[in-house]
Each structure stands twice: as C-alpha cells, then as structure tokens.
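queue> pop job 88
queue> type: inverse folding (structure -> sequence)
queue> payload:
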C-alpha cells in the first residue's frame, strides 16, 4: 500500500497538533514533561508507525513470514515507559508525576494511531485526555486533594524566605511545611508543601516568584 507525501506530512502535522494540545496543559502546571516533550513523543511515535507500516514494505518482501507493521509499534508502547519513569519522583511517602507519565504513554498511543491513519479515534482520545486533565482535575480538587509541592532555588540571604512567603500570601496560599537545603554553594533550595486555592492562577504564582529578586527558579513538583 502506497502513501503520498502529502498524507505523510498530514499525519505528522496532526500528531504535532494533538501532542501539543495535551502538552500545553502539562506545561501550564509546570510539570517536568510539558509542551515540547509531548509534541516530540507524539510526532516520534507517528513517525515510527509510518516507517513500520510503509517504509519497510520493500525491505520485508524477501523475508519469510511477510511484513508485520505492529512490531515497531509494540516497541514504542513498551519503550515509552522509560521516558515516563523519568517524570515520576518519590518524595517521602508520596509519589508524584504519575499523571504526567500516563499522559506521555497516552500521547505515544495517539501518535501511533495517527500514523496508522485512525484520525477519528486520535481526535476523540485527545479530547478525552484534555478533559481528564483539565476538568477532572478541578473535580479532584473540589473533593479535597489540594496540597502540592513548590520547589524554589533562591539566594541564601536574610529576609529572602519572608519575600517568598509574601508572594504566597498575595495569592492566599497556605504553607504547611518548609524544607531548606543550603548546601548548594551560597544558594538555598526550598521545598514548600502548600495549599493552593481554586481561584489562584497557578502560573501567575510562579511568575510572581520568579519576579522576586534573588529567586532563580520556581516550579511545581
């Protein structure tokens, strides 16, 4: 089965768009795998599916047993787990990053579906993933799971912690626990367990922290 260059480009661009839609939501929450990572995973999975389904046909004609386009796709499904594992962090008794790892795994599946030409299931799956991450996240928060961790790298100077607390108070954020590591050569690494109200704009909190003199990095964990 032949496929035109236009169709090849269409599938790759579609994967780029669908992966980006999911990645934007992860990026808005400051996750370690965000906009670009999800795009690359989706486009990469689509490309591998295209190569498996169409690029190896001529090579496989002389092989006994014919051409199996599912072999590369199967390796993508299992291999993406290693990338997802890099987003999972254990912090004491808590494990974070599972949702981002799951979104990467799902994006790889969407990319494979796009590469195989299953446009409608790809669009529906992307819609369901975005709804799960955006809408169901608010439902989850409404039922009480509101604590998160904010990591901050800042100068280790007098009054700096008070400046951090002032920014958080501006957004009505409650701080439950603070851990500080001052072994970073003159800088301090803070890890704050906080409760963020639903009305707060999450990225605005990070923007205000980054605008504070002496703070070098701030992100959600």
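queue> result:
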């Amino acid at each position: 089965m032949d496929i035109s260059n236009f169709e090849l480009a269409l599938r790759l661009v579609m994967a780029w768009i669908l992966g980006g839609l999911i990645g934007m939501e992860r990026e808005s929450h400051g996750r370690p795998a965000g906009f670009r990572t999800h795009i690359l995973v989706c486009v990469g999975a689509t490309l591998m599916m295209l190569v498996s389904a169409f690029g190896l046909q001529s090579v496989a004609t002389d092989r006994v047993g014919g051409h199996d386009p599912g072999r590369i796709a199967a390796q993508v499904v299992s291999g993406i787990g290693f990338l997802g594992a890099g987003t999972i962090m254990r912090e004491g008794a808590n494990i974070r990053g599972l949702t981002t790892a799951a979104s990467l795994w799902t994006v790889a599946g969407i990319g494979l579906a796009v590469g195989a030409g299953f446009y409608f299931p790809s669009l529906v799956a992307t819609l369901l993933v975005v709804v799960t991450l955006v809408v169901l996240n608010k439902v989850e928060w409404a039922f009480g799971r509101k604590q998160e961790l904010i990591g901050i790298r800042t100068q280790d100077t007098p009054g700096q912690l008070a400046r951090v607390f002032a920014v958080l108070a501006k957004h009505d954020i409650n701080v439950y626990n603070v851990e500080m590591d001052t072994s970073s050569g003159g800088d301090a690494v803070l890890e704050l367990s906080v409760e963020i109200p639903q009305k707060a704009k999450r990225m605005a909190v990070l923007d205000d922290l980054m605008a504070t003199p002496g703070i070098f990095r701030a992100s959600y964990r």
